[in-house]
Hints:
The chain is of the alpha/beta class. It has 22 helices and 14 strands.
Amino acid sequence: xxxxxxxxxxxxxxxxxxxxxxxxxxxxxxxxxxxxxxxxxxxxxxxxxxxxxxxxxxxxxxxxxxxxxxxxxxxxxxxxxxxxxxxxxxxxxxxxxxxxxxxxxxxxxxxxxxxxxxxxxxxxxxxxxxxxxxxxxxxxxxxxxxxxxxxxxxxxxxxxxxxxxxxxxxxxxxxxxxxxxxxxxxxxxxxxxxxxxxxxxxxxxxxxxxxxxxxxxxxxxxxxxxxxxxxxxxxxxxxxxxxxxxxxxxxxxxxxxxxxxxxxxxxxxxxxxxxxxxxxxxxxxxxxxxxxxxxxxxxxxxxxxxxxxxxxxxxxxxxxxxxxxxxxxxxxxxxxxxxxxxxxxxxxxxxxxxxxxxxxxxxxxxxxxxxxxxxxxxxxxxxxxxxxxxxxxxxxxxxxxxxxxxxxxxxxxxxxxxxxxxxxxxxxxxxxxxxxxxxxxxxxxxxxxxxxxxxxxxxxxxxxxxxxxxxxxxxxxxxxxxxxxxxxxxxxxxxxxxxxxxxxxxxxxxx
Length: 511
């Protein structure tokens, strides 16, 4: 391939960011320019207020400058995203419309899940990443409004949790306090510790984490002041914490000088140092790795992946499945049944490819729904589908967007409940998503009926479409009367959605 120039724009809670990249087959992805402009969007958006017109004017001026920079580099393509701060403003749609009309820059809003996953994708592309997570690692992404922690044990995702602790949020919370700096520091630490200790109590238990992979502002500047470990990438966590503690005691101007920062009045500097130190000390890793990656690097890497300019270095689908399995175990779902349901639903899905017309991502959503379909019973057997819906929508699953989780939650819900008409769910699903829910729920129903007794009575399962029937061939030594009865009851939705009749073809094995 030749060289492709690409620009990534991100509107965050406290700055607007432009990075210009070159993407090539030999040199991979190389940054050629980086421009940042401070804009404190979070001040209003975090409190559910509209963004005032002066701030909108300021953002438009910045975007016009960005357009000139992109034109000067003759970029082949660009993508522009706005994070939760702008998305949370009450006049978000109007602001987006004004920006596009005045500057020609089309901004897409993304939620927390999408934002963190874009950054994570780029971090996971580094060869060091696989080595670290194979042992144990916590990936912590610190933003202006929140932070996200993903725990890996033996290469698998244990959990992903979103904490409402961000640098801008902390700075604003204590901005108008008429108290001494030392008192503000103490209150920040208490607030952070409360949230971090709850996280640790629920998800750490007796575990130890070897690596802390940290992304956020000032990370690289801090790393440059530290002596590297033997691998020349990580720093000792104890030394890192001690250095942060020394910096906290200095005036802001002195800290900026030590880190070689141009803006000595940056209000985010102190909250960042305190937040980093509390994270390091609470998670108690052995070593810290700061890859120096932000959301813009994630945007270009995602673009390069989608356009096949680079090859994936990490199995992101496996992250989703391992996270779903971990969530399922947390809610004590029955594992042998889940394994059987995963296999059966996958066989049916693959046999029906030409008929259902769905792709790889939809198969992943079906698999996730199969793993989580029983999690609601932990809360209530009587209202399990509704409880499962709420659990899935409310849980962070690395690799799935919020809307993906809404789709999975509805697949699980309509695995049991009658499918509603589209008009009744149009407030949360578009037509394509509704069809995905209907098709996947139909497949899940049939697969679930095959193991209604949770005894896995069958083996050597095969599925093939012949004429107007889906023939499911099984071998069994036990009676399948219950399964056949439930299968016939669950087949109605499948026939309605696909206009194909599912049929069990049983071969008895005699011992």
